[in-house]
Specification:
By secondary structure, the protein is of the alpha+beta class. The protein has 5 helices and 3 strands, in the order H-H-E-H-H-E-E-H.
């Protein structure tokens, strides 16, 4: 249940939902700089949002030299959706 709670909290912010949508639309890894350029937020704020999504296992982060690349963790998202489907009637 802690994992579900962590995921729910991470997705509870509109900015993080937009980040997830943006990363999901890509078929490959997305550079951090590409994500940041689409938001009018401070670097530290974006870093905070990205860290929460990675900490909840919603995004997979890989270091590419000095940059980070992100991809949606489809397995974790699928598990979360499966959990939520229990509540559908």
């Amino acid at each position: 249940m802690k994992k579900i709670e962590k995921i729910s909290k991470a997705l509870g912010d509109p900015c993080r939902l937009k980040i997830m949508e943006m990363v999901k639309q890509q078929n490959d890894w997305v550079q951090c700089s590409c994500i940041i350029s689409n938001f009018d937020l401070a670097q530290s704020t974006m870093s905070h949002h990205m860290n929460l999504l990675v900490d909840a296992d919603l995004l997979i982060a890989v270091k590419d030299g000095r940059n980070m690349q992100y991809q949606v963790n489809k397995d974790v998202v699928a598990e979360y959706v499966k959990f939520l489907n229990v509540f559908s009637v």
